[in-house]
Amino acid sequence: MKKSYLYGGIIGGIAVVVLGGFGIASLTGGSVGGPLDAKVTAANAVIINDIDESKRYVELDVKVNNKTSQSIKFDSKAFKLKNTKTNETTDMESSIVSDSIKVMSYGASVSPKSSAKEIVVFDLGKQSSLKNYELLIDSRDSNYKDQKQVEVKLSDVKLKDTTDKPAKALGAYISTIFEGKEALMYDKFVANDKSDDQKEFNKDAIAWMESNMFSNRSLEADAGNKLVQKLQAKNDKEAKVEYKVIEATPTTAEIEVTPTTASLQDSSDMIYDIIDAAIDSDSTSDMSYDQIETGAMNLFVDKFDDVLKEVKMKKDSYPEKIKLTNVDGKWKIDTTTDAYKSLSKKFMGSDY
Question: Which ranges form a coiled coil (predicted)?
Answer without folding.
Answer: none
